[in-house]
Amino acid sequence: MLTTIFHRAILFLRQLYVRVLLIAALSLVSVALAKLLAPVIPPGLAQAIGADAVDPILTTLANSMLAVTIFSLTMMVSAHQAAASQWSPRTHVILTDDMTTQSVLATFVGAYLFSLCALILRRTDFFGERESVALFLMTILVVAMIVVAIIRWIAHLEDLGSLSHTADAVQSRAETAVASVGRHPCYGARALEDDPARVTDGSARVIGAPCAGYVQQIFADMLQSTAEAADARVYVTVSTGQYVAEGAPLAHVAGGGKDIVTKLRDAFAIANARSFVQDPRFGVSVMAEIASRALSPGINDPVTAVDIANRLATVLMLADPGRETEDGKPDLDRVWMPRFRYDGLFLDSYDRIARDAGANAEVQIAVQLGLASVIRESGPELAEAARACGARTLARARAAMKDDPDLPRLNAAASV
């Protein structure tokens, strides 16, 4: 249950407006803190340090931070649009979650609200001489935060929306999801090998989807805790990334009370778009989409496709179930889930790149070399899926390059 709460909190904190509101709240707290610190300020210190200068400083902050925020938002939107049009519309999800961008924008908005509130309170009897000293010190701290944020923002803008930044971000998300499914092919639950209706003799109740959309996450530990409390068993029939219609079966539950269906339904996160968090096929498909865009006639950049093919080999090797898989008794013994199929990773990645590469020898060779690396470095289950993908992509490439002089190079790469 704690894992579910943690994951939901992470999803919540990744929203841009949440960080902005948090920084804004801290800025208001700092204004109130200046009032609380007033009793410890020695009399006459305001004239000694020039605390009266706090008013023009706050005015400058209020005027400049609003303009800087608008400019930064414009740059962020432009970078997102450029990445979506050149590389993949799905990269917008990752760029929106960019922590540096969110922190910088939150700092700018928080500084604006701090200066605005402070200016208003300075025109009241709320702030006296000692309070002005504390406010002056708080303002200096806010200015220091702004300087750090501007430096970070300038450095971040150098790569924001570029191919290298976008590819690195997508690869990082894909590696996390693929490594997770490599360690836990059933997400810690028992493997569902048969139809739940047959296992439960048709006595199980169906948990229907509350709305249409993609299954973004399945909180297996929440299913386990709910099933334990109700002495029930849960058989999940969908996988993350799968599209479901409203009312479509998500799982079957055997045992438990009348309200258990409603509780179990809350363990499924369904939205209008797929997510990178628990969907490894989505991560590798976005990487393949970047390569496919690069191979389009409008861009015609096979070097990028070769780079993505090389990156995919690194990502897919993390799915090797022989490295760190589930062993012994499952952690979630009251939940059954479908075992992840590794061939789907190759269908969404190398198969798509090989299809769009056509007779491009460099890209087809990179695909074969990448698959050879996966076969060589992985266990039998993942290697078999890679070997099947190699046979499919090689046949497609040979058909497209039938009279190409680079065909011997392709055959040599496939035999590595």
From TrEMBL:
Matching InterPro entries: DUF2254_membrane
Keyword terms: Membrane, Transmembrane, Transmembrane helix
TM region(s), chain numbering: 16-37, 57-79, 99-121, 133-155
UniProt keyword annotation of Lipid metabolism present: no
Pfam families cross-referenced by the UniProt entry: DUF2254
Name of the protein described by the UniProt record: DUF2254 domain-containing protein
